[in-house]
Design goal:
Radius of gyration: 20 Å
Oligomer: single chain
Structural class: mainly alpha
Strand content: under 5%
Largest sheet: none
Distance between the termini: 69 Å
Order of helices and strands: HHHHHHHHHH
Number of helices: 10
Length: about 220
């Protein structure tokens, strides 16, 4: 029995050491990717799925979808994408539960960590703090849309994309317009009784067009 227990303990120790090495490799070894290189249609599909999970408060499902986005869009390694997905999901739900700008800004520290991790692997230089601030800003414009005029959400979305990709904001106006239209459908239908599968299909189509537009904008020569 003692020999069996000793073998089990040794096996667990070896497994723990190997797991620690794997985690450390994923988190700290040099790894660079081109954030402009992604499949727009695949990211749009996942974006629609995340919207549905977010609004139904399915946190675990949204976390899983986030990790898939981080793999497909940013090519993050397994453990790094778990960490980055945690930052993104935490900031999203801190914001969701907020009631004022002061509450919403509590999401900023984790948004900052999210963009700092993306910046660490990106071959495109950008200001992670600025990207986080502009991401939060479009969240606020969307949440408090009745306080803003038509076009403000489109512009806020374009500004956020501009900060991430270091491309002029004007290049992202179509992307912002299409994404804002998708949000308008979701919000209006939710307020008037519920979002149907037909509505989600329209939203998905707009998000596909939006992500294709963004992909074109960031890869212009």
């Amino acid at each position: 029995m003692k020999k069996i227990l000793s073998r089990i303990a040794s096996g667990l120790l070896i497994t723990g050491v190997l797991l620690s090495i794997w985690i450390a490799f994923d988190l700290y070894s040099p790894h660079k990717i081109d954030i402009r290189d992604f499949d727009a249609d695949e990211i749009a599909r996942l974006d629609t799925a995340m919207w549905r999970s977010y609004y139904s408060r399915e946190r675990l499902r949204m976390f899983s979808e986030l990790t898939e986005v981080l793999e497909k869009q940013y090519k993050l390694r397994f453990w790094r994408r778990q960490l980055v997905a945690f930052y993104a999901a935490k900031s999203a739900f801190v914001f969701k539960d907020g009631k004022s700008r002061a509450d919403y800004e509590k999401a900023l520290p984790d948004l900052g960590k999210f963009y700092a991790e993306i910046r660490a692997v990106s071959t495109t230089d950008f200001d992670a703090r600025r990207a986080a601030e502009l991401e939060l800003e479009w969240w606020i414009v969307h949440r408090e849309r009745k306080k803003y005029k038509e076009g403000d959400l489109r512009n806020a979305l374009a500004d956020a994309a501009s900060a991430l990709y270091n491309v002029r904001a004007e290049n992202f106006l179509e992307y912002g317009k299409l994404r804002a239209e998708a949000m308008e459908i979701r919000d209006r239908k939710a307020e008037s009784g519920g979002v149907t599968e037909e509505d989600w299909q329209k939203i998905d189509e707009l998000l596909h067009k939006s992500w294709r537009s963004l992909h074109t904008a960031v890869n212009m020569k």
